């Protein structure tokens, strides 16, 4: 039995609420256990320089944590300089995940900018950000379609993310902070609704791990992603008209 | 009649919810119309250098806006350098307001750090921040008392803040964004529960204003502060034990 | 009697000298007691992006202190990053004050940039900066008129600034540094020659203050501004042709 | 046949030269095809704050590219601010790899700082950095042992890294730049001499990939690491006394 | 005849006024033609880390230009980052010049910090800064002696600086801005009262120059320095008690 | 006899190798004793703003040291801000030296960017950088001629640099680090093949020096430059076709 009573292959309770910020083209609050992240999607009529005049669009992301989202207050990351390496890594991960499931050639020369801001952090903030980001991104695409910016929703697949790891010698799904800080292996998987990998990132925090352990972790991740994509499908099934 | 149906001397609906972030020593969500601010209070066992070994404590504040709290997405203020002038001004204002209603010599050599993060901005974010900050600050003081850090709550008075201004030639209380952007005079008042001034900041955006106008605005502010302090008293009447 | 022998409603000796920096379109040295500020005005043939193609001009300001203008040497503000909050606040204050007394639609798409650099600081540097800035600004406008850049001097009114405060329980005009550091209430007033308010900024440093105190301070400020505007009128009465 | 005549499971020619920088406690030049990286190890008698008084040591790394190591000149990363996200990611990766194969409790309260500077970049600079870093790190540990700083070399295992990827639909080992820029899947594996994983980082650049592809890539990586560790063993078999 | 009527070996009129900033331990205004620089000296009871516990003192300098000291307004150097290369070069030059004429082992573990701020720039600001800095530095040493911080003034020699250059094919002394911008060779010499070199910095702006030209320029510099040291001696002959 | 057995007028062994970085338009490794610098030249089809539409080209330089090029590891200069004053000074020196021996009006509106990166530092890194930079710069000019970017090589003269100094009371040529750190006078001379001065930079580190000493140092420098230009001529006599 795990610290919070779950089995090793069990997700924390997940809830996604759409339309939580009225000015954004898409927005979602994702709650995964005690982790809470506000995700918003903004449409901007520009693309990065390397895409200029290529007829394609782009998706990028920013990630932040409120200073007191954590047990001990953190400084506001990036005040006084660039954000730290962890933040930059997460931002690039979220952006790549979103770009892997849309056809960028169908959204015109515009950018979708996803902001993920962690209000409360109990482990898995980067994976919750991806799972929540997908929902507000789809809402922004629907906004674009309703407003004649795009002809159709260029959605190829669903995408969600989850952490897995080895804690106390046991492979486990969806680590909370207490588990995460003691994990020997820490892994984040981004996977599509069709079960294909977008990202596989595993790190031995303590001692290196075997191929068998890797396989067990990948299987747990598959189970978790299935559950998360199911929730995304349920939440997104109705057209939603945000206030903006 | 105003844009949103209020009379000139009427506040927007205000709601304050305590305990919204489980790790903070005090936290509050303040909603004033469509403006929403998350306020948290953190206790740190240090004081700034100028207070070292003086036997006194300190209160300071940081203020931020989520990028999509506004109609048009803003860049994350301070990423890549110091926060801008407006942010620094607001941070110092919140800090001074909190320090004006506690006896700093009774809180020991420690600091209370208030974070105000705007989730949705519809005018009056700095004044809502002060009104909400007061609530989480009191909760953090009660936390300190419960945990033996301080002997008694060194609360001298209540403190709240409100904006007033001249819009379409009319003095008005508690401007929303649509009113604020057209205001000829823009004023923020910070006042104690006893009706004394902590801050008076008035600016002629268009043309300079007379002493009579100043007096009318100060009277509207007094009415607004009375209402806000009433809500603070109601919200704070029960001891609240946060999860931390 | 005050520390330096003045009565409570008495300004320090003020002297304004025009033309102190030969390359500037306008320049003035203001001496108010031991406070000395060099003010220069520069005309630039650009406007900020938000005014592009609007047919209007702009006035902005920068403020700095020489490192040894103060009792203890200060670091050069802004070296290694953005200027601090106090500097940014003062810069915006000077700019707003200048803009409040000219008709920006009559100066063409160009900017007037005012620099105020404090050589010696004995309290009231921000208010002396405003009072001095006005003089060099008018000289730069006259330069523009002489050189055919503008058709007429778009001067609506005079503008000056002064500090007032409560020291040892007494409301006083034009605080020197020794008074300022002990003040219970500290207030800066920017007012036009016609006696209208441009800015009212009052802060309780120690304990909050009553409406009566506010009224007494506003009356002292009015007296001070009258004196300062009188000096501006005297100093500006002759056309001055700078060397540039 | 690949662009440079290799088979899919073949490494580029690899050469490691020890002692290339006379002042460093350990140094190595690694050449992998046209990729060339100078690695140096520095011993510092301090540890990061979080290890203070814990009786343990630390290993950290910095990574840089000479501006003209690439086809098109790059700006010096980090000049004018923090290094970019890619650099920070690589630095943390190198540090974790080194820490995974030594017993940090046996090196005393001191830090080993590895610098990897790319002179010429033809793909695989991060993995070459790790493979070369290991060699100079061992030399620095031997330096420490010779000089009585540590009692024994706390070496647990060898560690090397290699890239694998899917190019033109084919899984391949050790991508050169021309292959890397066209890869559909890009993966970096850090593995010990005993064949255990330290890091698994795979990214779908184009479309998501299946579990079967993942397995094929992991097998190619295993083959490559075996070859690289063989070279490390050969190169390190003699004690080397650097000039310092 | 030169642009301003001087002969090739003639200095501009030079005037040095002591005690111009009342709070500084030493201060001087140097006027050399239209160039005007305010120099102040501050005594700080610390030394840089590399001199800790060595029983010696240090002298360092900062240099700045008011934005409108020049024909075209300059940005405030260093706001938003480090000062530019020219400023850093000048700062180090002033510091070295001051350190060359005092016995640092006699001033105790303290630092003298010289600030040179250019109010009006007509060429030769770095050399005027050195010549003026020397005067305020000596006044600060005398302040230290009067106040018992040091036993005697550890003055070894006088030091001054001057520019020389080749303009219109002619070697000339003490270039004004109009001459400086057209110079083929530009040289700054720092020399002691005894005629020894502290710094020789010559640059061919256009085409390289011969050894003969170098000798002619060094002779002109010698003449100029003699004149400047004569003025320093005259100005410093009386003990001066600053207001601080 | 000197620390390393040389006579006072003797250079260290110097070796220059062309074509060491395959992607650069020109590259050279210069070894002067134990000092080693990698120099590369990059051609960019832009000029700085002040040369826009003037029909002329430009040459600029950047300089860096690998962290462990020195006895004690240095921080990467410029990470987290602008490079330090020494780096900026050296960069400007290299650029001016290159510009002094080409006719910029014959290279079109393009820039040559020289990068000098020190791999191992044993004194004289700035002068070795200049001597090596010249070689890769000529190779880049030849690349430009071969590729039809310019009609002829606009080479006016050779240019090299060397340090001289007074150590243990003796004037010496080409100081190594051990000599440099004890030098009383430190001087860097940049001179053309025709024996004309481009730069003369001499500094009294300890006590000021006489005109006689200056003359002896200049004569030693002349001897050294002659030797270095001889090596440049030998190395550059064959056309070299880099791999790019």
Secondary-structure blueprint:
The structure is a homohexamer of 244-residue chains.
Chain A: E1 14-18, E2 26-32, E3 35-44, E4 58-65, H1 85-99, E5 111-120, H2 125-146, E6 159-167, E7 170-173, H3 177-180, E8 185-192, E9 197-204, H4 211-235
Parallel strand pairs in A: 4-5
Antiparallel strand pairs in A: 1-2, 2-3, 3-5, 6-7, 6-8, 8-9
Helix pairs in contact in A: 1-2, 2-4
Mean pLDDT of chain A: 94
Measured by DSSP, the beta-strand proportion of chain A falls in 25-35%
Largest interface: A-B, 32 and 32 residues
Uncertain runs of chain A: none
Dominant shape of chain A: globular
Major sheet: arrangement of strands of chain A: 1-2-3-5-4
Largest sheet of chain A: 5 strands, mixed
Structural class of chain A: alpha+beta
Radius of gyration of chain A: 18 Å
| Quaternary structure classification | homohexamer
State the helical fraction of chain A. Answer: 25-40%
Query: How would you spell out the order of helices and strands of chain A?
Result: EEEEHEHEEHEEH
Give the terminus-to-terminus CA distance of chain A: 46 Å
The count of helical stretches of chain A stands at 4
Care to count the β-strands of chain A?
9
Explained architecture:
Six copies of one chain form a homohexamer. By secondary structure, chain A is an alpha+beta fold. Chain A has four helices and nine strands. Chain A has a five-stranded mixed sheet. A four-stranded antiparallel sheet of chain A has the order 7-6-8-9. In chain A, α1 (85-99) crosses α2 (125-146). The radius of gyration of chain A is 18 Å and the shape is globular. Chains in contact: A-B, A-D, B-C, C-E, D-F, E-F. β9 (197-204) of chain B pairs antiparallel with β9 of chain C, so a sheet runs across the interface.
